[in-house]
């Protein structure tokens, strides 16, 4: 997977070089290119923003630097295109351009799986201020598949943190990028219920004991207890997930709450 991010704060995304994401880059599974938008601003002050036409609060990101930054990514992507073979299915070769915005469609685990499975080049355009001149997004439609994406119903200063969240969520689903791939099977938002609580040594800590069933060695009882905990938690914290849980997903031994 190749990621390109254009931002006025490339340092903001440097933590993506750490830990398992760093390993995925070292192994060549993932390539992360960070681009400074200011490198594409050619006036003396490297201006990337200006006042909005029509008036109003805040500043708008100028079209010219974004246009040049995206041109440069398109040019470098062209030389990386796989050779076209005669029997290949016709497909949309435009890279995906994700534009983080609280006005986008909400990102979720299903979308993360979709991107991990179907994409090999994702470009991110995180904005600051009040956003990017709309003509950039309009022009970009001709060269990218443009997708405005939100993390949820709250507002951040800018899109950088959203990009970090999406890159983490997608990369860990790429085969080979997960320390322990089995942990993908049991986690929240894959099976339709939230994860069960976990414990490790010592068995007593500040007078609190680990639930006895987990020390019993009875694997069937442990599985039952964990399933009960998942249902209880999901019921208490995310009733919306209970309501959309598939009818045939319930086991006849599942406890009625
Ligand atoms: Cl993607 N961007 C910004 N600026 N705020 C957000 C967001 C994105 N998602 C939720 N809030």
Automatic annotation (TrEMBL):
MF (Gene Ontology): tRNA (guanine(37)-N1)-methyltransferase activity
Q: Record's Gene3D superfamilies?
A: 3.40.1280.10, tRNA(m1g37)methyltransferase, domain 2
What does the record list as GO biological process? tRNA N1-guanine methylation
Q: Name one Pfam family in it.
A: tRNA_m1G_MT
| Keyword set, alphabetical order | Cytoplasm, Methyltransferase, S-adenosyl-L-methionine, Transferase, tRNA processing
* Residue span, tRNA methyltransferase TRMD/TRM10-type domain: 1-243
Q: Where in the cell is it found?
A: Cytoplasm
According to its UniProt record, the EC number is 2.1.1.228
Tell me the residue numbers annotated for binding S-adenosyl-L-methionine. 151-156
Q: InterPro entries under this entry? A: Alpha/beta_knot_MTases, tRNA_m1G_MeTrfase_C_sf, tRNA_m1G_MeTrfase_TrmD, tRNA_m1G_MTases_N, tRNA_MeTrfase_TRMD/TRM10
Highest taxon of the lineage: Bacteria
Reactions catalysed, semicolon-separated, are: guanosine(37) in tRNA + S-adenosyl-L-methionine = N(1)-methylguanosine(37) in tRNA + S-adenosyl-L-homocysteine + H(+)
**Can you name a GO cellular component term?**
cytosol
Tell me, in a sentence or two, what this protein's role is: Specifically methylates guanosine-37 in various tRNAs.
What interactions and quaternary structure are annotated? Homodimer.
Q: What family is this protein classified in?
A: Belongs to the RNA methyltransferase TrmD family.
PANTHER family assigned to the protein according to its UniProt record, in alphabetical order: TRNA (GUANINE-N(1)-)-METHYLTRANSFERASE
Q: What is this protein called?
A: tRNA (guanine-N(1)-)-methyltransferase
Task: Give the source lineage, highest ranks first.
Answer: Bacteria, Bacillati, Actinomycetota, Actinomycetes, Micrococcales
Query: What gene is behind this protein?
Result: trmD
């Amino acid at each position: 997977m190749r990621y390109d991010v254009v931002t006025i704060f490339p340092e903001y995304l440097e933590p993506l070089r750490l830990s398992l994401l760093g390993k995925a880059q070292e192994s060549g599974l993932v390539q992360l290119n960070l681009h400074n938008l200011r490198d594409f601003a050619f006036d003396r002050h490297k201006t990337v923003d200006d006042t909005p036409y029509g008036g109003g609060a805040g500043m708008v990101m100028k079209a010219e630097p974004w246009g040049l930054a995206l041109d440069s990514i398109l040019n470098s992507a062209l030389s990386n295109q796989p050779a076209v073979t005669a029997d290949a299915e016709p497909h949309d070769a435009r890279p995906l351009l994700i534009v983080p915005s609280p006005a986008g469609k909400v990102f979720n685990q299903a979308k993360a799986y979709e991107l991990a499975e179907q994409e090999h080049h994702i470009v991110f355009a995180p904005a600051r201020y009040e956003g990017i001149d709309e003509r950039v997004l309009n022009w970009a439609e001709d060269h990218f598949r443009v997708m405005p994406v939100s993390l949820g119903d709250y507002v951040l200063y800018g899109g950088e943190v959203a990009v970090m969240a999406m890159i983490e969520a997608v990369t860990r689903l790429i085969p080979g990028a997960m320390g322990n791939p089995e942990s993908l099977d049991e986690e929240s938002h894959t099976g339709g219920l939230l994860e069960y609580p976990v414990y490790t040594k010592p068995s007593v800590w500040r007078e609190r004991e680990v639930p006895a069933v987990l020390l019993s060695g009875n694997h069937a009882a442990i599985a039952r207890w964990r399933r009960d905990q998942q249902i209880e938690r999901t019921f208490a914290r995310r009733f919306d997930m209970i309501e959309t849980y598939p009818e045939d997903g319930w086991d006849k031994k599942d406890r009625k709450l």
